[in-house]
Design brief:
single chain; alpha+beta; Phosphorylase Kinase, domain 1; Aminoglycoside 3'-phosphotransferase, Chain: A, domain 2; 2 domains; 13 helices; about 50% helix; globular; Kinase-like_dom_sf; Aminoglycoside phosphotransferase domain-containing protein
Length: about 325
């Protein structure tokens, strides 16, 4: 589907009456149609170096994969994959009549007041909730499947994707900004080369596991009763089969982004306290992964069109500088 077709679907009286449509959130790779009780995620027909949604069959495949992956972290939230059809000059969702033109992932709509980003912004995150969150992440890390096919080339590939954004970066923050990003790539390569033994030891110690992989605060819902993690990445399995410190870095970067050092310290200390013996912690490696995660968040925001995206991009850019300085090898 394209933008105009999404608008036509959302404006149809049948869709509005059946689901109580409220608004659409657009990301760089999807549209999320928010209704009173449900949300529908439609993938954009894109082909990028890191994903391929260019054909209807591929979007159906990745919708089903997203459904299966997220059931682990968000049980009973991801409900089913539904067809989008065109029948009698109208776009219809979750009906069998007409020709199938696309697919959507149907989800229960969660209460935004429980979104971690919102709870942090409103300063209403409770210490008990933070404690439960650290215990939950520990449990995931302890019980997740061990992966043995990890290698640092995957980290190089993931980080180098930012170089594809050269024109956008130069336009929005200047040539010097892109030159610094190139310096970050060099710093990363030097760190990987100097710490090859460390990375190999992480594999041997079973610290590479199949986890969530994208734990920014827009994907985490917390209340006193439960924790729900959404939007586990389905288009690249290597993003989920990662070092436990990479997964932790995803969380800790956003504590820094929201300027909550006290919460970050509490979270990581409580996480460590659950281990009875050796922990996966390594400060240098954690800072390396924080740099990685900051580059990813910077990339997502720098390609956004809104003013808030630009503000966020600059904040993540500052964090990249902070972490890069901590691991730089002269």
């Amino acid at each position: 589907m394209n933008s105009s077709q999404i608008i036509n679907l959302c404006l149809s009286s049948e869709f509005q009456q059946k689901y109580g449509y409220e608004k659409t959130i657009e990301t760089h790779i999807s549209w999320i149609l928010l209704c009173k009780a449900y949300a529908f995620k439609v993938k954009k027909p894109l082909k990028l170096k890191f994903l391929d949604y260019s054909e209807v069959s591929k979007r159906e495949f990745y919708c089903k994969k997203e459904l299966n992956l997220n059931d682990r972290f968000a049980p009973n939230v991801y409900l089913k994959v539904v067809p989008i059809t065109y029948y009698q000059n109208q776009f219809k969702l979750a009906v069998t009549s007409g020709d199938i033109i696309d697919y959507a992932v149907m989800m229960k709509r969660l209460d935004d007041t429980h979104l971690l980003a919102n709870r942090i912004n409103k300063n209403i995150l409770q210490e008990s909730e933070l404690s439960n969150f650290s215990a939950y992440i520990y449990k995931i890390h302890k019980t997740s499947e061990v992966c043995s096919d990890f290698n640092t080339n995957k980290l190089v590939k993931r980080l180098n994707q930012v170089l594809e954004l050269k024109d956008i970066i130069c336009k929005k923050i200047g040539k010097a900004g892109f030159e610094f990003i190139q310096k970050v790539i060099t710093t990363s390569n030097r760190f990987l080369e100097a710490n090859n033994t460390l990375f190999q030891s992480r594999i041997k110690q079973n610290y590479i596991k199949h986890v969530h992989g994208d734990l920014h605060f827009g994907n985490i819902f917390i209340d006193r009763k439960k924790i729900v993690l959404i939007d586990c990445i389905e288009f690249e399995e290597d993003y989920n089969k990662i070092d436990l410190l990479d997964d932790l870095a995803s969380i800790l970067v956003d504590f820094d982004f929201f300027e909550r050092p006290y919460d970050a310290t509490n979270f990581i200390n409580q996480y460590i306290s659950h281990y009875k013996g050796k922990t996966p912690m390594n400060d240098a490696l954690l800072n390396y992964y924080k740099m990685h995660r900051s580059v990813t968040r910077f990339s997502v925001n720098i390609i956004g069109e809104g003013a808030e995206n630009m503000v966020n991009a600059k904040k993540y850019y500052a964090l990249i500088k902070k972490y890069e300085s901590l691991i730089a090898i002269e």
